[in-house]
Amino acid sequence: MEKQEFKQSFTADKSDFGQRFDQTVAKYCTEVSRSKLQDWIKKGCVKLNGEVITKARVKLMGDETIEIDAELEIAGEWQPQDIPLDVVFQDEHILVINKPAGLVVHPAPGNKDGTLVNALLHLDLDLKHLPRAGIIHRLDKETSGLLIVARTLEAHTHLVAQLQERAFEREYQCICHGQMVSGGSIDEPIGRHPQSRIKMAVTTSGKEAITHFRLREKFNDFTHLKVNLETGRTHQIRVHMAHLHYPLVGDPTYGRANYAPSGSSDRLKQAVRGFKRQALHARKLGVMHPVTQESLSWEVAPPEDYTELLKVLQQENPIS
């Protein structure tokens, strides 16, 4: 992956007295994610009054000079590929994409091409000059729905800041195993699973994660939910629902992918066992336009496989 030199300096304000080093760096350097900034601090890429500081929790006095000298990965070596995209909205500053299930967002080992990044570069080659080709937030490979892409560095900076300030409106819908009595919220930290490198888990050493959920429809053995994210941790909805013992239908990592309740009709068994991805869709996305400051919102219905599963549940698993 191509790397670009990233240098920036700024002075902490007196109001930053008592604030953590990493939080202050993130406050002033909004075009880079907090996790990346924390990584740079650990690697010695950030100086405080000319001295390298590798501890993120150091408290500031205010009026310090902070300097960043690091390298930022950009999409230089990724190749454009003519992959059809469902573009919900676009102007010269942003793109909003309705991502299909099965499309990987970023190239990685095992998925070096055929990704959303490759498709975006075919749509707009200038995106190669932006971090992650302008992609602001991710969706899992098998999750469908809306995500936003910046087309300029200015737009990228403002959108990353909104995401960090939890100003994005992100509404999902999902289908879970089990009949919930009511909606609610879960505030449980999420971090890497202690035994599995590919899984996340609720853990005291994790990062804050808050999920709000409301009932859309109840069935005898399943629940259809509306879910809003306050934070955006990896696999957050999937992990939180599994933690509550309502795993998502079809989830091969956190759920019971081939499970169908006893007494299910053949049609219900076939529908549930045949749903080969997590039943999760990013339905609604709301942001402040990074340039015009207009409040914008988009909504897309779930794909056919999701609606067909719902139809089967309505017909074959009504509340008895």
UniProtKB/TrEMBL annotation:
Domain RNA-binding S4 per the UniProt entry, residue ranges: 19-80
Catalytic reactions of this protein: uridine(1911/1915/1917) in 23S rRNA = pseudouridine(1911/1915/1917) in 23S rRNA; a uridine in RNA = a pseudouridine in RNA
Superkingdom in the source lineage: Bacteria
Single Gene Ontology MF annotation: 23S rRNA pseudouridine(1911/1915/1917) synthase activity
One GO-annotated biological process of the protein: enzyme-directed rRNA pseudouridine synthesis
Record-linked Pfam families: PseudoU_synth_2, S4
InterPro entries (UniProt xref): PsdUridine_synth_cat_dom_sf (IPR020103), PsdUridine_synth_RluA-like_CS (IPR006224), PsdUridine_synth_RluC/D (IPR006225), PsdUridine_synth_RsuA/RluA (IPR006145), RluA_PseudoU_synthase (IPR050188), S4_RNA-bd (IPR002942), S4_RNA-bd_sf (IPR036986)
E.C. no: 5.4.99.-
Gene3D superfamilies: Pseudouridine synthase, RNA-binding S4 domain
Keywords carried by this UniProt record: Isomerase, RNA-binding
Keyword match Isomerase: yes
Enzyme type, top EC level: isomerase
Family classification: Belongs to the pseudouridine synthase RluA family.
Main function: Responsible for synthesis of pseudouridine from uracil at positions 1911, 1915 and 1917 in 23S ribosomal RNA.
Official protein name in the record: Pseudouridine synthase
Organism this protein belongs to: Pleionea mediterranea
